[in-house]
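Hypothesis: this fold can be encoded by more than one sequence.
Test: take the structure tokens below, design a sequence, compare later.
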């Protein structure tokens, strides 16, 4: 569940899992879940992890308007470094900071950035500019890998 700590984020996470498992967005449980997600999305969602999950859920389901709305929010909070793009949590606790000999982001930030990438790749009516952005996100994710090809966490 990664950074999930509330009902909205958990609902988005489960909805994504059901869509990834091949269930139709017309399946009653998923339809009801999207009703809840759409209702919740009318309020301001400031948590970056929740924004990334919501973006992926709406993009995966082909709900273009909500997908685009969340991708725009994510774009505004993205960090750009050397042509790459990623997202950071608003507040890092001292325990989230990597030792100086490891220049890797906390695992939750890798997860947030990965969900943003998935949202962009599943965006309805994706264009060349979207793929260029995706390439920059992939560059950042690759730099987070450890020498064995994995990441700092199983997340």
């Amino acid at each position: 569940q990664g950074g999930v700590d509330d009902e909205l984020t958990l609902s988005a996470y489960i909805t994504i899992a059901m869509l990834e498992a091949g269930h139709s967005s017309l399946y009653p449980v998923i339809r009801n879940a999207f009703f809840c997600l759409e209702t919740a999305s009318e309020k301001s969602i400031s948590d970056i992890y929740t924004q990334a999950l919501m973006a992926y859920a709406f993009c995966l389901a082909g709900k273009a308007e909500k997908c685009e709305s969340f991708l725009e929010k994510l774009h505004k909070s993205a960090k750009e470094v050397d042509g790459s793009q990623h997202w950071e949590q608003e507040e890092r606790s001292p325990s989230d900071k990597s030792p100086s000999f490891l220049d890797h982001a906390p695992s939750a930030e890798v997860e947030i950035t990965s969900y943003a990438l998935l949202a962009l790749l599943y965006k309805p009516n994706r264009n060349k500019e979207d793929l260029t952005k995706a390439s920059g996100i992939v560059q950042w994710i690759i730099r987070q890998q450890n020498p064995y090809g994995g990441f700092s966490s199983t997340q």
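The first helix runs from residue 7 to 20. The helical segments are 7-20, 28-41, 48-60, 64-77, 107-122, 128-143.
Hypothesis status: open.
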